[in-house]
């Protein structure tokens, strides 16, 4: 399964609870698109949020975010990673 | 320790080996700035690379990248995360 990082820019001032709720909405929908959101990080000052996911395509990942009410268009497939 | 995601935009066509080498150069320097690079992801098509790190400040993280030869200015503190 491919891995993706997508970037949201609208979470200025968002709280941990709001990120948790947004993430839960993704998790509730993701199965229908064979996507899994593994991790999300938020910078409430700039409003940027970064989501790490796996799935069949960029489009599938973006559809889950759209149905969950926090659409974005900025997404990258990340086939290479290091730890 | 604070957590950060920094973004590079110059890795178009980079290979897994090149990302590994760049990451190793960070790891070799990071201790001097009390920074730790935990994970990095690369999209060789767009050239974007995302680095997850912990450290005392954005500036410390950016200094390690600069000394390692792959400077960037795009960095976000990410105090909130979900899994």
Layout of helices and strands, plus pairs?
2 copies of one chain form a homodimer.
Chain A (H helix, E strand, L loop, with lengths): L1 E7 L7 H15 L5 E8 L4 E8 L2 H10 L6 E4 L2 E3 L1
Antiparallel strand pairs in A: 1-3, 1-4, 2-3
Pfam families (chains A, B): SCO4226-like
InterPro entries (chains A, B): SCO4226 (IPR042557), SCO4226-like (IPR025336)
Protein name (chains A, B): SCO4226 family nickel-binding protein
Order of strands, main sheet of chain A, comes to 2-3-1-4
Structural class of chain A: alpha+beta
Tell me the β content of chain A. 35-45%
The CATH C-level name of chain A is Alpha Beta
Q: Which value, in Å, is the CA radius of gyration of chain A?
A: 12 Å
Number of helices of chain A: 2
**What's the architecture of chain A, going by CATH?**
2-Layer Sandwich
Most extensive interface: pair and counts?
Answer: A-B, 28 and 28 residues
Q: If you had to describe this structure to a student in words, what would you say it looks like?
A:
- The structure is a homodimer of 83-residue chains.
- Chain A has a four-stranded antiparallel β-sheet with strand order 2-3-1-4.
- Chain A starts with a strand and ends with a strand.
- The longest helix of chain A has 15 residues, at 16-30.
- The first copy, chain A, has helices spanning 16-30, 58-67, and strands at 2-8, 36-43, 48-55, 74-77, 80-82.
- The first copy, chain A, has one domain: 2-Layer Sandwich (Alpha-Beta Plaits).
- Chain A is built from two helices and five strands.
- Chain A is of the alpha+beta class and 83 residues long.
- Chains A and B meet through helix 1, strand 2, strand 3 and strand 5 of A and helix 1, strand 2, strand 3 and strand 5 of B.
